[in-house]
Amino acid sequence: MTGYILKRLISAIPVLFGITVIVFLIMAMIPGDPATAILGSYATPENVEKLNRDLGLDQPLVARYFIWLGNMLQGDFGRSFALNRPVLDEVLDRFSATLILAGTSFVLCAVFGIAAGVVSAARQYGFADKAITFAVLLGISIPSFFLGMMMILIFAVNLKWLPVSGMYAIYGGGDLPDLFWHLLMPALALAVVATGVVARLSRSAMLEVLRQDFIRTARAKGVNERRVVWRHALKAAMVSIIPVLGIQAGFVLSGAVYIEMVFQWPGVGRMLVDAILKRDILLVQGGVVFVAACYVLFNIAVDVAQSLLDPRIKT
Amino acid sequence: MSAALKLENLSKAFPVGKRLFGAPKGIVHAVQPVDLVVEEGETLGIVGESGCGKSTLARMLVGLLPASTGSIEIGGKPLNNADPAEFGKRIQYVFQDPISSLNPRKTIRQVMEAPLKRLHGMGKADRDRRIAEIFDSVNLRQEFLERYPHEFSGGQAQRIGIARALAAEAKILILDEPVSALDVSVQAQVLNLLADLKAKLGLTYLFISHDLAVVEAVSDRVAVLYFGSVVEVGRAEDIFRAPKHPYTRLLANSAPVVGRPLTAPEGRETELPDPLNPPPGCPFKPRCPRATDECAAARPGLLPDEGHRVACIHPLGAGD
Amino acid sequence: MKKFFQLLIRNRLAAAGGVALSIVVLLALLTPILPLQEPNVTNTANRFVKPFSEGHLLGTDHLGRDMLSRLLWGTRLSLAVGFAAAIFAAFFGAAIGIVAGYFGGRTDNIIMRGVDMLMAFPYILLALAIVAALGPGLVNALIAVAAVNVPFFARNIRGVTVGIAHKEFVDAARLAGLSNTRIILTEILPNVIPVIVIAMSTTIGWMILETAGLSFLGLGSQPPQADLGSMLGEARSALITNPHTSVVPGVMILIIVMGINLLGDGVRDALDPRLRSGALTRPMAATVVERESQPPAAHAEGVLTMTDLETQFHVGERVYKAVNKVSLNVAPGECLGVIGESGSGKSVTALSVMGLVASPPGVIVGGSVRYKDAELIGMKYGRLRELRGDRVAYIFQDPLATLHPLYKVGDQLVEAIQVHHKVGRAEAWKRAVDLLKQVRIPNAESRAESYPHEMSGGMRQRVGIAMSLANDPDVIIADEPTTALDVTVQAQILSLLNDLRRERGLAIIFITHDFGVVAQLCDRVAVMYAGRIVEEGPTQAVLDAPAHPYTKRLIACVPELGEGRRRLEAIPGLPPAVDRLDPGCAFAPRCLKKEAACVTREIELARVGGRAVRCLYPETDLKEAAE
């Protein structure tokens, strides 16, 4: 197993390398030069040229890439000019907030999505199935940012049960219960879509598995129905559910951008949107590469989980 | 008689555990070097169990798989599938699964027209006439032409598959388990049809099957494949009645036959060798009751060069 | 009827989605000619007018612009952008996927590595990076959303293409002289298009959401132009004071996306042939029993006795009479062979015994199955479950499909034991290894730790047999247990089954299509045709002097080893479809001895001594044969 994890980690190196290339190339497409964008259109040509030299922008593209890559490998993601602080520090601060939000949502969507899918498949065409199917349809059709706004309106403004936005109360907050109450609405709003998708796929994966011959074998052995569904069928269905969870993690991370805007959550998504609007290129580059790298590592964990479940995968 | 099909030293090795760069982790020799000749107008049966390489062999013969070594001659000329239109006129293939060999979204007419158009460049009127002719010869009704494959039973679909192969007007047909997906009552219909067509059109067949009785019933000569090698070749009436290779005898004794009591011909519970790690020498040695240490030395070749040939250094005689 | 109703509801939902979507699309198309106020004319004196006010049906926004007008213009924009993105993504994704899937090898490898690389990003990062590079704007948002979706399409379509490219009809096309381009266009593409349409219908709603999302973030449409997303984004600051400015565009997005998703599901259901045939319905724990009459009395003695068993498949309006009044019995230590061609109902008969026929569509509509004194048909599920695998056990055909792929074979045996016996795991494991030894698996201790895919077909079937023996059953029902095996392995398995039966006094019902197997293993044989028993009797007697013309001709058309090259006695025609059975003998249309009487009325199974035949003009007079 250690060998397999090591193998997967090594195979991630070219992917990480490719990610930096893609991000770098996209950013190199930006028209005009960043120095003007940074200094504004009133800057003197001398200043622009100096800044370009400082940023290494007078070098050819390939050289610039390797300078950037080399610096990143040493932990230097550059400096955000808008915030005037190292990119990595800012990204790490913000990413921990995103991780709390997206992580909670991911766990919610996995648990409730799979459970709903299994119940739905086990009671196909029954009341539970129809109710779940309708709820799922509603869930995947509603924009998460709109849902978040409506939740604020209902639970924070009208009912006053939960705080409107932010991660901690401004005065006297900062402890775990405070975080929990602030987290509740954004995490739920973020989880809704992913839960719907997971439920849908779990349902069809379960239906697919329940028709298999080995399910009939289990029944022929006299295994009771609950065990047939929750052990035999779910275990086999997990083989196709786990990769979906891996993809959904990316969707949750993506959806977090909207939710962070709506709930003023101090996460990496909001940081990126602000950075784009301010043309803070190094911050965008660094943020995207960092989050993408974390996602790649997460997907390796997903692959490892899959190989633990399925002995047919060669480790 | 001249050779319709001649294989020399033909083999196929598949790399296993391919990587993007560098050597694969292992190599499976699906077909060991084979020399075989099929005479014009002959039916050569190829029999073997699953994993013996019989389908790989067949797919190489029609150019669907490139060979690793060796050469194939069709009608005296080396196989060349660079021009698919020329190639398809010389050799054709009938598939095991009749339904999946027909495109579900094409009518039977469209299926039938493809070889006529692409291989023979026929015009519309010629095509219609030719299709009608072929359909008559395989006992299919004209009205089937406008239907889609899912509307047919296995037996009918296999007739359509045979009709398509005939449309190419190739003289050699490779029949890859053509009846194993069919029920016995339909299987006999298709086998008889194949026999009639062969007599009428002077075809040459390479008939591949796992069913010994079927192969025996249709073939002039039979080649027995085990683990990628031809272990015995001989006349159909001799090969199962008086087998020379211990594996052929095991096959013949294993087939359930009415009136023969049930016995396990092999005392031990045996399995095929691991293809990634084959035993040295004769691959049948671990299962063979006659095996000696000599058998592990080298893979025996087919002897003698003519007639009833066997790849065994302890062949069965008349008394065994 | 119930299923029909359910299908109707499903279709009604799709129709409702379609209607809602059509109305929205129609309104969006008509927007330029509708008598609306200018969407971008500000009137700050009239800010935040509430909905349903004079002159402003949906009120006004923070700049006093008419919400209705802005909503319709915004809808128009959002729909256009969403559809454009979907078509763009589907086209490029499908093209890449088909090329990679069809050509395979290195082409595939390189393309898919690139696709994987793009999918290694959480998609919004890529979209944000693209927008960051191109600058905020609706067209750039469209490009970003489409571009991040290309890899999803490419991967999906590639998978489907690989499946199709390995089908035999593609090989056939190649041998018919078609070039690669032609094969892609005429053989692959027609089979891929439904998948593309399904993928589009299920992602188009999502693309509308995503473009709206980018606009919501201020990265899409720029003021004063507004799509639904930017309307929501602008309204956010006034969410608490004037919620209507948020609710109006939000609800519109919900309606559009919901409509698309409903319709998309309908499209998917209609295009996916598996869904259409109902194959994706979940089989229930036990076959449905809808028996109107009282169960008949057992027709014979035996440890297991079926009397007038009737099992049907109800598919839509059609009724397939798979098992039509079948009576069979088996005594301890006896092996009964049931022989027939595919579709004869032999397997359904076997599965009906313990209620293992998939329901829906299977329904047991009549007859009785008695295990000793217990009636199995209509028995309470809990009691039936206790008998399953304990007193009556099964061996199935394909041991790779019938064993659970993710459990060790030892664990699967342990489960079979623990379901019926309260024993600890260690004890059960010991018994499991013991069972593997009894079916002569070499190195049983280590083999118990193997997974099914690590074993050969013959070894897996031994595991299947071991599992059936786990609780020392009285009856074993073997449903073509050797059909998937090679002939040398089949011989091993048959002799093993024969030994076990003699050692343990098992009653075996052996389902097969092979007379050779029946002759070697079975004491008695029943021949089935079109759901009925046409002949029954001691194996030797039936084989020596078959009474039913079908039996006789079926035996004649099977080639037997050792008879040399010959012409076979084929039976012309096909077995009938069991949903359209004519009265009388089902074999009559193929029979050389057919008379008018054969097809006028039902023909009884005439029993004489140990033999029985369902024929008016039998080949062998059973009375004479008995004497």
Q: Any descriptors?
A:
heterotrimer, B: 320 residues, alpha/beta, Rossmann fold, 7-stranded mixed sheet, 4-stranded antiparallel sheet, 11 strands, 28% helix, C: 627 residues, MetI-like fold, 8-stranded mixed sheet, 5-stranded mixed sheet, elongated, disordered N terminus
Explain how this protein is built:
With 315 residues, chain A is mainly alpha-helical. Chain A has helices at residues 2-28, 34-39, 45-55, 61-73, 87-122, 127-141, 144-158, 176-210, 213-221, 225-262, 268-277, 281-309, and strands at 79-80, 85-86. A two-stranded antiparallel ribbon of chain A has the order 1-2. In chain A, helix 5 (87-122) runs antiparallel to helix 10 and helix 7 (144-158) crosses helix 8. The longest helix of chain A is centred in the last third of the chain and has 38 residues, at 225-262. With 320 residues, chain B is of the alpha/beta class. Helix content of chain B is 28%, strand content 22%. Chain B has nine helices and eleven strands. Chain B has a seven-stranded mixed sheet, with helices on both faces. A four-stranded antiparallel sheet of chain B has the order 2-1-4-5. Chain B is globular. Chain B starts with a strand and ends in a 10-residue tail after the last strand. In chain C, 50% of the residues lie in helices and 12% in strands. Chain C has 22 helices and 13 strands. In chain C, helix 4 packs across helix 5 (138-165), helix 7 packs antiparallel against helix 9 (244-271) and helix 14 (409-420) packs across helix 15. The two termini of chain C are 53 Å apart. Mean pLDDT of chain C is 88; it is low at 1-5. Classes of the chains: A mainly alpha (315), B alpha/beta (320), C alpha/beta (627). Chains in contact: A-C, B-C.
